[in-house]
């Protein structure tokens, strides 16, 4: 009896062994897509090993499409046009694409698997995005929940960006965090500083990256990041400019003003900065100094809820009611906004109501 | 308890450092399905429904959002909406992203105060998930009902 049972166990084990071998071999044969070609904008060809996502395949060749979720298919940021190849549209992509995008062959690059040669279109600016290693040169506490961080570039040791663009900072595994994540932050320093740049980072409750920055990051630490990204930069026109920011949204506006200070401008400009209480204000004197730099510039800090003890005598409430103090010719006004989605929503509505053309309103796409 | 691959992945995404710094389970050692089951029973016991709670949270969030200048009064509640740059994803891997924001509510009649996020509302409506005990944005059903109704 025992021999019979052992025999059957052996037969079953052998059978499972054979089946496993068949599956492994089949996987090797059918999952091996060999070398595939990715043709970019009809002029650049990359040879990649098939099987990875388009997002990862491009990243391996140092082409970084922005992604907020690290390729999990949950943010919908890594869109690009796939003209040939790429396979059928997946159910995981559909919720992120509108009718126009669906008709225009837009796909999520993290969901498209490179199994064959593929042709894509991506903005030329993406080729300027690089991976950087940097060291932390300085950390400054601006407010109780906002820090200014200066990064000194190690490899490569210089960066080209337009004032207003952002980088994606990668966290290492820290404390109990088991994986690296990347988050977008606007550069706050001027583009002419090639070997270093600054970010302004506000603590977000439960934020993986901001908790790392605020509680663990030290001067001298080495970090990785990619960039620059984004099309939030000052358009070269003669229009009046209204800047509106809140919290860490001061970062790209600071970069823009520092850049204009170097390049010179005679455009009419005003900057409205919204905060809750006096303790949320920072770099106020520095911003006021731009009044001496530009012919026609004003800085308006506005507090929504100052405490009585603060004895705030400046503008109170939300920033919008004060726009009329500055906007004289709405059709000839450009708006550059940076802050929370809620602030952007309210400010955009007000500006449009005042007659500022929607096409003249610019803000960070990652907010 | 035998788990499906999907459940294992969800449980993993709820751990600290995956989607949020401290995760969705807090100090709760239970499986997320057990947390959901207990909270569902509590809500039944209190004679409310998940949709009633989610509808009310949506209504209050919209009210708080309307007041950019700070706290606003709505019935017996004082509401304050605070938003941050960036977005967060769902641990159940539903498509879409949710604004990084929080609404603080204080019931002036009983002084119960708590806060929730746009993701909380989605987690409650779609997954009946109020987060684990000790999690930063755990909404205890009993306290929540006391506060918002």
Describe this structure in words.
The complex is a heterodimer of chains A (367) and B (149). With 367 residues, chain A is α/β, with parallel strands linked by helices. Chain A has three domains: 35-126, Ubiquitin-like (UB roll) (Roll); 130-229, Elongation Factor Tu (Ef-tu), domain 3, CATH 2.40.30; 240-363, Rossmann fold. Chain A has eight helices and 17 strands. Chain A has helices at residues 2-30, 54-60, 99-103, 208-215, 250-263, 284-288, 290-293, 341-354; strands spanning 35-40, 44-49, 79-84, 106-108, 118-121, 130-141, 146-155, 166-170, 182-186, 196-202, 222-229, 240-246, 269-275, 297-303, 315-316, 333-338, 361-363. In chain A, the strands form three sheets. In chain A, strands 9-8-11-6-7-10 form a six-stranded antiparallel sheet. A six-stranded parallel sheet of chain A has the order 15-14-13-12-16-17, with helices on both faces. In chain A, a hairpin with a 3-residue loop joins strand 1 (35-40) and strand 2 (44-49). Chain A is elongated. The model of chain B has no long low-confidence stretch (mean pLDDT 91). The longest helix of chain B has 16 residues, at 50-65. Chain B has 149 residues and is an alpha+beta fold. A four-stranded antiparallel sheet of chain B has the order 1-2-3-4. In chain B, helix 3 (50-65) packs antiparallel against helix 4 (118-127). Chain B has one domain (5-148). Chain B has helices at residues 5-13, 32-45, 50-65, 118-127, 141-148, and strands at residues 72-74, 77-89, 97-107, 113-116. Chain B is built from five helices and four strands, in the order H-H-H-E-E-E-E-H-H. Chain B is globular, with a radius of gyration of 15 Å. The chains are: A alpha/beta (367), B alpha+beta (149). Chains A and B meet through helix 8 of A and strand 2 and strand 3 of B.
């Amino acid at each position: 009896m025992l021999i019979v049972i052992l025999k059957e166990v052996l037969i079953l084990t052998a059978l499972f062994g054979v089946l496993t071998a068949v599956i492994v071999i089949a996987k090797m044969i059918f999952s091996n897509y060999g070398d595939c070609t990715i043709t970019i904008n009809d002029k650049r060809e990359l040879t990649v090993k098939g099987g990875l996502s388009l997002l990862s395949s491009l990243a391996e060749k140092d082409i970084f499409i922005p992604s907020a979720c690290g390729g999990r298919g949950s943010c919908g940021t890594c869109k690009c046009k796939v003209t040939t190849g790429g396979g059928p549209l997946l159910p995981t992509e559909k919720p992120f694409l509108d009718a126009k995008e669906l008709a225009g062959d837009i796909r999520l690059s993290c969901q498209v698997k490179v199994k064959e040669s593929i042709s894509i279109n991506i903005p030329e600016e993406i080729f300027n995005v690089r991976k950087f290693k940097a060291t932390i040169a300085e950390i400054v506490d601006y407010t109780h929940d906002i820090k200014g961080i200066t990064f000194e570039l190690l490899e490569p040791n210089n960066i080209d960006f337009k004032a207003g663009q952002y980088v994606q900072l990668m966290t290492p595994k820290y404390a109990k965090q088991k994986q690296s994540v990347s988050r977008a932050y606007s550069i706050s320093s001027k583009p002419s500083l090639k070997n270093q740049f600054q970010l302004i980072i506000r603590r977000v409750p439960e934020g993986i990256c901001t908790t790392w920055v605020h509680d663990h990051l030290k001067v001298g630490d080495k970090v990785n990041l990619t960039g620059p990204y984004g099309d939030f930069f000052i358009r070269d026109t003669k229009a009046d400019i209204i800047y509106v920011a809140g919290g860490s949204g001061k970062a790209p506006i600071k970069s823009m003003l520092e850049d204009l200070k170097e390049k010179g401008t005679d455009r009419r400009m005003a900057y409205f900065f919204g905060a809750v209480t006096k303790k949320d204000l920072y770099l106020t004197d520095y911003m006021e100094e731009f009044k001496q730099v530009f012919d026609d510039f004003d800085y308006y800090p506005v507090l929504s809820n100052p405490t009585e003890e603060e004895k705030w005598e400046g503008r109170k409430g939300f920033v919008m009611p004060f726009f009329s103090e500055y906007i004289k010719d709405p059709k000839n006004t450009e708006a550059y906004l940076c802050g929370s989605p809620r602030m952007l929503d309210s400010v955009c509505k007000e500006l449009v109501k005042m007659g500022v053309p929607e096409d003249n309103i610019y803000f960070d796409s990652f907010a | 308890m035998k788990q499906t691959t999907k459940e294992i992945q969800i449980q993993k995404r709820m751990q600290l450092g995956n989607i949020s710094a401290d995760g969705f389970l807090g100090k709760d050692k239970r499986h997320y399905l057990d947390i959901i089951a207990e909270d569902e029973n509590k809500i039944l016991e209190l004679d409310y429904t998940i949709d009633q709670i989610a509808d009310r949270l949506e209504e209050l969030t919209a009210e708080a959002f309307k007041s950019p200048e700070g706290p606003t009064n709505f019935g017996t509640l004082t509401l304050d909406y605070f938003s941050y740059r960036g977005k967060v994803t769902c641990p159940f891997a539903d498509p879409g992203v949710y604004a990084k924001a929080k609404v603080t509510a204080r019931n002036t009649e009983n002084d119960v105060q708590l806060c929730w996020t746009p993701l909380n509302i989605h987690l409650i409506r779609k997954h009946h998930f109020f987060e684990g005990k000790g999690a930063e944005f755990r909404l205890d059903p009993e306290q929540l009902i006391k506060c918002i109704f």
